[in-house]
């Protein structure tokens, strides 16, 4: 599979726009609002934010290891265990958002330097098998928009 420079450029723009979309979805919410669970059985908004920041760390590691190592093993991350053990409700939404921006900015600087053949580099996911750098970037790029929908749904239920 080949990638056009336009396709990669568009993907990188979408990747960099993710944190802003997340930040915009949080407008009008206090930390108290973010702690509420307006939809039974679903995470609070703060839990969603913390999940996103934790997964950004996981994906940054995957991206760097795919680039630096030959066919590295990429371990699965269990979001439920992260939420259970990583004190999501004690974390600060602004710190989490800053972390997401920082990670994406750093990774984008690396990705902008790559030649086309780098996008074909492979990591071996512990559950999914072989995955290319391009596939990893596409997956993490879609992660924030996926969760923004749920944040907006929570805001609506809270009347915000």
Describe this protein's structure.
By secondary structure, this protein is mainly alpha-helical. Helices cover 64% and strands 6% of the residues. The chain has helices at 5-25, 31-35, 45-68, 79-85, 93-111, 133-158, and strands at 73-74, 122-125, 129-132. Strands 1-2-3 form a 3-stranded mixed beta sheet. α1 runs antiparallel to α5 and α3 (45-68) packs antiparallel against α6. It is globular. The relative contact order is 0.22. The model has no long low-confidence stretch (mean pLDDT 96).
Shape: globular
Cα radius of gyration in angstroms: 17 Å
User: Which stretches are poorly predicted, pLDDT < 50 over at least 5 residues?
Assistant: none
Strand content: 5-15%
Biggest sheet record: 3 strands, mixed
Helix coverage percent: 55-70%
* Strand order, largest beta sheet: 1-2-3
The SSE string, one letter per element, is HHHEHHEEH
Structural category: mainly alpha
Helix count from the secondary structure assignment: 6
Overall pLDDT metric: 96
Number of extended strands: 3
From the N-terminal CA to the C-terminal CA, the straight-line distance is 44 Å
Short structural description:
This protein is mainly α. The protein contains six helices and three strands; from the N terminus they run αααβααββα.
Name the features.
160 residues; mainly alpha; three-stranded mixed sheet; 6 helices; 64% helix
Detail the topology: elements first, then pairings.
Blueprint (H helix, E strand, L loop, with lengths): L4 H21 L5 H5 L9 H24 L4 E2 L4 H7 L7 H19 L10 E4 L3 E4 H26 L2
Parallel strand pairs: 1-2
Antiparallel strand pairs: 2-3
Helix pairs in contact: 1-5, 1-6, 3-5, 3-6
């Amino acid at each position: 599979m080949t990638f056009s420079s336009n396709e990669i450029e568009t993907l990188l723009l979408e990747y960099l726009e993710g944190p802003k979309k997340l930040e915009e979805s949080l407008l009008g919410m206090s930390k108290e609002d973010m702690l509420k669970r307006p939809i039974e059985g679903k995470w609070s908004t703060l839990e969603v934010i913390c999940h996103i920041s934790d997964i950004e760390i996981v994906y940054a590691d995957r991206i760097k290891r795919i680039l630096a190592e030959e066919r590295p093993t990429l371990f699965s991350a269990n979001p439920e265990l992260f939420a259970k053990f990583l004190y999501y409700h004690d974390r600060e939404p602004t710190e989490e958002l800053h972390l997401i921006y920082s990670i994406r900015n750093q990774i984008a600087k690396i990705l902008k330097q790559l030649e086309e053949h780098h996008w074909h580099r492979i990591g071996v996911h512990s559950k999914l098998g072989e995955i290319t750098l391009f596939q990893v970037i596409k997956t993490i790029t879609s992660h924030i928009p996926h969760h923004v929908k749920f944040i907006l749904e929570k805001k609506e239920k809270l009347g915000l």
